[in-house]
Every structure is written in structure tokens, then in C-alpha cells.
Amino acid sequence: MGVVGRLLGLGPVLLSGVIILCLLVAFSIPALAPIAPFIGIILPVIFLGVLAWRRAYPAAVGWLRGRVGGESFWNAALPDLKVIKVVTTDKGLARLHPMAGKVVLLEDRAGNGYACKVLRIADVVNSYETTTEEERLLLLDRMAKAIEGLGDVEAKLVIDRSPDTGESAHIILWSRIIDGDEKAAVHSVESAAKTLQRSMDRIGITMVDDMTYLSPSVSLRAATIPGRRAHGLALAISSIGTAASSAMCLGPGAGPLPIILLASGVLGLMVSQKLLKASSRATCRECLGRPHVHISLGGAEAYQVEPGGILKEYHRGYVVYSRYLAFTGNHNRDLSHDDIERRLPMSLKSFSALLYTLTDFRIALHIKPQPIGDTVRIALAKADFYGMDAQVGGALSGYYKAGRSMNLADRIMRGERPYLISGVVQVRARVNGQYMDEARALDLLDKQLREAASFLDTMNISTREVRDGWGAVLANRFLYLPLQETALEYNPIPRIRALTRDFIAISPLAFRRRPLMPKEGLYLGRDEMGRPVYLNPSLLPNPHVLILGPPGKGKSTLVKTMLFRLEQLAKYTGTGRPPAVLIIDPAGEYADKAEDLRAKGLKVTVIDLVKSKYNPLLLAGLEPRQRAARLVDYIFANIMPLDRYQAGVLFQAIMLAYKKLGGIDEYNPETWTDDRAAKATFKHIYDYIAWRAEQAAKAIAAKGGSPELDPAVTLLTELARMLTPLAIGSFALDRTDITIDQLIREGGIVIVSFKTRTVEGMQVRMSDELQKLMVWSILEHIHSYMTSLHAEEGVRLIVVIDEGHKFLQGRYETIPLGQHLREGRKFGASYIIVTHLPKDLPPDIERIVGTIFIFGFGHPGEARRVAELLNLTEEEYEKIMSMKTGELYVKWIEDPRPLYFVFEPDEKALVRRREERLWQLYRMQ
Ligand SMILES: Nc1ncnc2c1ncn2[C@@H]1O[C@H](COP(=O)(O)OP(=O)(O)OP(=O)(O)O)[C@@H](O)[C@H]1O
Ligand SMILES: [Mg+2]
Q1: Which CATH number fits domain 525-607+738-925: 3.30.830.10, 2.60.40.290, 3.40.50.300, 3.30.70.260?
Q2: Could you give the C-alpha distances from 668 to 25, 376, 618, 672, in angstroms and in order?
Q3: By alpha-carbon position, which residue is closest to atom 8 of ligand 1?
Q4: Measuring CA to CA, which residue among 506, 606, 591, 520 is closest to residue 556?
Q5: Staple 114 to which of 174, 375, 700, 716, CB 3.0 to 4.6 Å?
Q6: Which residue puts its alpha carbon closest to atom 9 of ligand 1?
């Protein structure tokens, strides 16, 4: 029966079934009898008309409408290329991934077609700044030249951005297979890929083999073809109708007609059964012939083409709608070099505006270099010709045309390159069932398409909207495959469609590349594309962190969030435990979080320096003389206006205290212990200096002199006065309650807070000098302690200095914080420095930290300063001025590009609002 069906063709069988049915109906109703012959003609004509309308799409579109698997798409998209093969060219790579090191061959029966390969642009390896215009120009130029050097191999550039996969850029390379010589084509496409990789590598762009772009479907999947199934069903129904009605008419005297009808009904039923069976399987005619591989485009499960140029794609459970814009060349070639130069910033701006506007799109450019010499020669000849024409005939348009040709020649002679460029922009919308339905998706597509068209228009690139189903199929094919028209066409006279600069804005390098930052670690938030941002001091070459931002922008919240997520760093310390943290917390705001942190399973120790006295005289691993010298030179000289004599006295006093009180012998290392050093305190030093001042005054008075006028006495008295706050009053340093060893050995999180002290109901603040002394001596001790340990990779201790503006500035620029940072790294110390303004910092700190976080700065001058630190572009500078709490830039020392991201604070890290607190108080009563 199948043979009969094939012989008759399905159409005629179906048609005859319908005609018979119509005739039957018409004849069985007496009133219709007179018009029966007309019905027999008109209905089939209408039917044929409908079929013809459907044929307005290529036959394959009928299948596509019905969710046919990817392989059918290939058959439809490449009607001329029937054989798709994958050949392995690099066994080593192939072991890494099923599609790596492979070339796809697309061939027709005569052995013509293409060898095709895909490379992906991986992260930019070297530290290239890719957003300044000059750099972009340079990079695009280099890339264009690289493509130019590929010989007969052509290239297509596809830039993709979607919310779920982020940005990517691919280059599809292909070489023609001529006369069935597959080997030659494979060889040339492979060597072109290597050349391209090498030359892009030189400008800091890594390109990797990525054939997954054309993902192979492992086997021929069963796919139904509802179009055919519908035909089969229609035929079955009409056949049953025919058979049944004719069976009723059977009988003596009915004549031969019912018998014929019955037979045709049965015949139709059998054909329909074959048809239905056949429609349950996708048909690839080649499956019966040569062995070959089926490939689906872009990993979609199925495509469906809608009228109006909409492609519906089924992908991982959701539906993606796409619409297309196409363009070939542009009008920029009319402009002169200088015009272009002037327009360039605008084009780049409008393109980056387009990138902000569209979130889900793909741009493909087919770049085919044109011969330079010929192009210039022809352009000059044309200019001559039109110029003469204008002079002789006086046609004004001649001048215009001559000018245009001159511009062209001029631009090429100035180093621009002529290309034949065609492109497709695909905008997509994903229906996920939640807040995006089909109607909204189509609406969005429409809007985005118009937006994209108008942006490209401002760049002088005129686009054409794809409005029909077949156009959409071809446009989609353009994104994956060599475009047949341009690839096969050979035009000996160059048609210049574009010059290098015309397309500069839409090069992949125009995309904001994601800086080279840790891909795992402590979770901070998400960037604009929704990709996670991590901090991981252990993985960075330099673990130090600087956090800048005006008050109230969330700096401390950021640090607190880090504490709450500290566990996420446990993997990287080598001990399986999170690194120890020591926090300098002058406002006591971290101490407030101690309970919440403990609830997270972290070990937290809060040390209140008002209650537990800390002794700056501890040796912490240094020799007594060194400690005394560093205390005097780095710390005291920075806090108080010491002159040389006073510094000398202070040094002597410290050494004396070590010796007399602690029994520390300068020449015997056995005695250099903190147990001994702890016995000397500032109370003693103050007492000693005050005693010396008194003695000196007495001596002068004994000689009949006047002590007030004696410079030495004055200096001593003054020194004693300056030291008074360290020795007298509630903050006096008269005991040693904790040592640095205890602080660090403690492990977990140690919060050093120095809240105010209440005296008779009044809040008494620790003086600024005392605060500085405390913080600096703790930092000094941490430093000498850490550096006395053995060197270690990885982060052992994180030191947080919040409210840096209070401590980081000394009287002189001799705060050794820079030294701490530089040397601490090797011993596993990581510093997190938090402050408001760059000028709060000791010199050069911003240059030696590995990571800089900067919150929004509304002040133009300050914003300018931090823009310099972050290497912001003009646009980013404007952005940083209007950034809200929680939005920030982060920059890694290794990468000149910063990354904008929105920080996701831990719930517990946020300061509870006042009202909430009041509410709590209210509930407590
Ligand atoms: N991402 C955020 N979302 C919502 N609120 C936030 C966010 N970050 C911080 N806050 C809130 O903003 C306020 C100020 O935050 P925070 O104390 O961290 O600022 P700061 O930059 O450390 O200020 P200062 O320099 O004065 O110490 C707090 O009430 C905090 O809860
Ligand atoms: Mg703060």
C-alpha cells in the first residue's frame, strides 16, 4: 500500500478522498443535488489554495512548526548540504571534550561545502584595559588584521549575552571544500584557527576550541511531525466517512458507485495508517545512506517558526522567542576619516547604551576582508571619473559621488581596512511561566527590536527587520553557520561595505569583560549580569583589602557580612578552619554582633580595652632595644610632638623599665620574654619621667637658678605632661591584662573594642592619642609576632581596621602600616582597612592592597580621586556619583578593570532600625 501511496503521491490521495466525500455529501442531500458538480470543483480548489498558502513557507517550515528535533532543522536550513560529518583533528584535545579538537564538515552530494570550526574568546589574559576607545580601536584593528591573515578561510563573529549564561564571544571559521577535497579544507581551517589563536594571544586574548557551540545530538531522536500526522488523520476520517456512507448505500440496484466509494474509503484508510506511522519518526533521508552525525543548533531541543519572523525555541524546559534584525555594510563609508574620528565616541556610547538596554541578545558579524590595493585604486579612479563628470557636465551629484570615493580611498590609506560585513542581531525573550508570558515576551521583543534598530541607526548602521518565518530560519542559521550567499559568492570587483572603524563599537572587545577575580570563596553579591562575586584573599597574590566610602554607605556592614560568612573561607586555609580574625572596633559595633556570630558557630572573644588593659611595652618577638626604638620613633613621635631630647629620654625610660622592672637583660635573649616585659607599664615610665623632671628642677633650684627657665627641665616636664593620660585616670596603662600571644592564639574572631567608660553617669571617651597608641601598638605587635613565625602560604590571620580615619593619619608619614602589609603577606596576615577617604590613608597603601572596594561617592572631587584609584571610565565615574548604599565597585590589583556589583548583606549584619529597637523595648516591658 505504501507503494501505491508513493506512486500516487500523498496529495492526490488526500485530495481524491476529499472530493469523493464532498460529492457524496452533495448527492445525499436532494436540495444540493443541482450544485453538486460545483461543490466537487470549488472545495478542492479551496483546499488546494490552503495548501498553496502553506507552501508559501518552504516545505520544511511545516515540520519546524511542529517542534521537530534539531536535526530536521539542519535538513531545512541546509537544503543543499546533506552530509554533516565531524572529523577529529586533535586527539589530545578530543580526550578533554567530545567536541574539542574537531572540525565539522558540511557537504552536498557532489562533495562541495565547508569545513567549519568554532573558537571561543576566553578571558583576556593579560591586563588589558578594554573599555577605553583607543584600546578598543587598537584591539579591533588587530583582530581584523588577524582575520585578514587567514587566507581563504572566512570568519564570523558571534557575540552573545543572556541572563543565564552571561557574555560570550565566538569566532566561527570555515573553509570551502572544493571538489570533495575534505582534507585540504580541514587543514586550512585548522591552521587558520591556530594562526588566529596565536595572533590574538599576542594582544592578550585567549581563544579556545569550543565546538560545543554546535552541540552534537548523539542519536536521531524520535520526533513527531504533526503536519503529516494531521494529513494522515484527515485522510483517515474522510476515508471512514466515505466507506461508512457508501456501505449504507450498498444494495441491489445501487449501481457500481457505492462499491467504488467503499473501495476508495478502505484504500484511504490503509494509506492513512501508513502515513500516521511514518509521521511518528523524524525522517532524515540520509539516515539510510552514508553514516553521518546529526547536529542541533545551539543545544535547543526544538524550533518552531511563527509567522512574522518569530522563532520559538525550546530550551531546557523554557521557551525562548527570538526576532531578528539584519544588516549589510552601512552608510559610514560616505564619511571622511575625520568625521568618523569625531563620531566614534558617540558610536561607542550608543553601543554601550544598547548593551545596557538589551539583556538577552546575540550579534553575528560576517567579516570578509577585501583587497586593499584594488579597493583604493578603484576608489581613486571613480573619484577621478565623477569629478571630471561634474566639471564637464555640471552635475552636482558628481561632486558628491567623487567626494565619497575620495573619502573611501583616504580612509583606507590612513590605515583602515575594507570589509564586506553582514550581520544579524537576534533579540530574545524567555518565557518562564512566572512573570513573562507569551504576549509579554512578544511585546518585549518588539520593543527591543525597535530599540536595537534605532541604536544601530545612530551609529549609521541601517538595519532591516526580519518579518517572515523563512527569514527567521535563515537569520538564525546565520548565527551558527557559514552564510551560503556570501561564502559561495566570489566577486572579483570588491564591493566595500564597511571599514574597520564603522564596526568598532560592536566588536566583542567592546563588551565589558568580567575582571579576573576569584570564582569561588566568600560570597559578596552579584554583578550586573547576575553573576556571583566572591572575595578570596587566599587565592589572590596579595590578600590585603581596602574599603573606602563615605559614612553610612555600608562599609562596616560589608565587613560584618564577611564575618558571618567566614566559614566559606575554611576550605582555603589549609587547616579546614576559617582564618582567625582580629578586629579593631572603636565604635563597639562588632562587639554588638558577638552573640549573632556565636549563633553561627563561630568562636568570638570580645576584649574591651577599657576593662582589660593592653600594654604597648610588650616585646612580641622583638629585641627590647628594637621595641623601644619602634615605640618611640613610629608610635610616640606620630602621636605627640616629641623633640629629639624627649625621644631620647623616653627611650631611656623604656629601656630602664625593661631592665629594672622586668629584669630584662639587653644582652641575654633568654630574658626577652613578654612575661618579663609585662611587668613594665606606662605608669612606671610616667612616674620615672616625672621624677626626673622633679630632680632636675631641684638641682637647678639648688644652684639658685630658676627651673621654669631651664630648657631641659621644661622639656622633661612637658614630656611628663604629654604622658599623663597614659598613666593617670580611668584609661591609665598601669597593668597588663592580655598579651598579643593571647590575642592571636585565641583563634576565631577577636574583637578589640574600646568603648567609652561611664564615670558618674557621664560618658568619658578614650582620647584620640590613646586610641592611636592602642591601635598602633596592637598592629605593631601583631606584625612582629606574625613575622616571627615561619613563613606560610595562605591566610592565617585577618586583621580588620575599621574607622581607619581615626588612626591611619599620624603627625608624620612614618606609620609603618605599609611595612606591615608588605611583609605580613608572607606570614599569612591579611589586612582589611576600612576608611572614608583616600586621603585618610598612609601613603602608597592603595597601591599595595590586592583588592579595593569603593562605595558610591557623591562629591565630584572625591569621586574623581577614587575614579583614579579604580581606573574608572567617564561613564563609570558618573555612575559612582549616584550609587546607593550597597552598590560598589571592586578592583583587583591584577586587573585594571573594576567590577560593579550589588552587595548582598547578611541579614544579621544589618543594623536594626531604631523603630525596631524601640518596638523590642516596648515588648520587653
Ligand atoms: N546593602 C545594604 N542594604 C540595606 N541597608 C544597608 C546595606 N548596607 C548597609 N546598610 C545599612 O546602612 C547603615 C550604615 O551602614 P554601615 O554602618 O555599614 O556604614 P559605614 O559605611 O560603615 O558607615 P561609617 O563610615 O559611618 O562607619 C546601617 O544601618 C546598615 O544597616
Ligand atoms: Mg562603619
Answers
A1: 3.40.50.300
A2: 123, 87, 17, 7
A3: 554
A4: 591
A5: 174
A6: 554
Ligand 1: which of 548, 553, 836, 855 to mutate, judged by most atoms within 8 Å of the beta carbon?
Answer: 553
Q: Looking at the CA of 560, which ligand is closest?
A: 1
Q: Is 560 in the pocket of ligand 1 (CB under 6 A)?
A: no
Query: 889: which 3 cell numbers?
Result: 565597585
DSSP-assigned letter for residue 132? S
**What residue segments make up the domains of the chain, in order of their start?**
2-56+224-276, 83-219+298-510, 525-607+738-925, 615-736
The 3 state secondary structure assigned to 688-703 is HHHHHHHHHHHHHHHC
Q: By alpha-carbon position, which residue is closest to atom 25 of ligand 1? A: 551
Position with higher pLDDT, 384 vs 395: 384
* 884 within ligand 1 shell (Cβ under 6 A): no
Each residue of 593-636: pLDDT tens digit?
999 999 999 999 998 888 888 899 999 889 999 999 999 988 88
Pick from 868, 823, 825, 872: which is nearest to 850 by CA? 825
Show the 3-state SS of 503-523.
HHHHCHHHCCCCCCCCCCCEE
Residue 608, exposed/middle/buried by CB under 10 A (0-12, 13-18, 19+)?
Answer: middle
In whole angstroms, give the CA distance from residue 726 to residue 769. 9
Residue bearing the CA closest to ligand 1, atom 6: 554
Dist CA 845 CA 815 (whole Å)? 11
Cα–Cα distance measured from residue 87 to residue 773, given in angstroms and rounded to the nearest whole number:
72
CA torsion through residues 411, 416, 422, 427, sign: negative
| Mean pLDDT rounded to a whole number for the chain | 79
CA proximity to 297, closest of 85, 476, 116, 484: 476
pLDDT of res. 296: 56
In this prediction, what percent of the chain has a pLDDT beyond 90?
23
Looking at residue 796, what DSSP letter applies? S
Neighbours of 331 (CB within 10 A): 13
Q: What is the DSSP string of 684-751?
A: HHHHHHHHHHHHHHHHHHHTT--GGG-HHHHHHHHHHHHHHHHHSSTT------B-HHHHHHT-SEEE
* pLDDT range class, residue 66, cuts 50, 70, 90: very low
Best residue among 523, 910, 914 to mutate for probing ligand 1's pocket (most ligand atoms within 8 Å of CB) is: 910
Q: How far is CA 492 from CA 340, 370, 495, 496, in A?
A: 28, 10, 9, 12
Contact 815, 808 (CB under 8 A): yes
Q: Which three cell numbers stand for residue 61?
A: 517550515
Candidate from 885, 888, 902, 915 with most ligand 1 atoms within 8 A of CB, to mutate: 885
Q: Which residues of 809-842 are buried (b: 16+ CB within 10 A; e: fewer)?
A: bbeeeebbbbebbeebbebbbbbbbbbbbbebbb
Atom in ligand 1 nearest the alpha carbon of residue 558? 18
Q: Is 916 in the pocket of ligand 1 (CB under 6 A)?
A: no
Pocket test residue of 526, 557, 560 for ligand 1, highest count of atoms within 8 A of CB: 557
**CB-ligand 1 contact for 856 (6 Å cutoff):** no
Q: Tell me how far the alpha carbon of residue 779 lies from the centroid of ligand 1, in angstroms.
A: 26
Lowest mean pLDDT among 277-281, 323-327, 375-379, 743-747: 277-281
Level-2 CATH architecture, domain 615-736: Orthogonal Bundle (1.10)
C-alpha cell at 203: 594582544
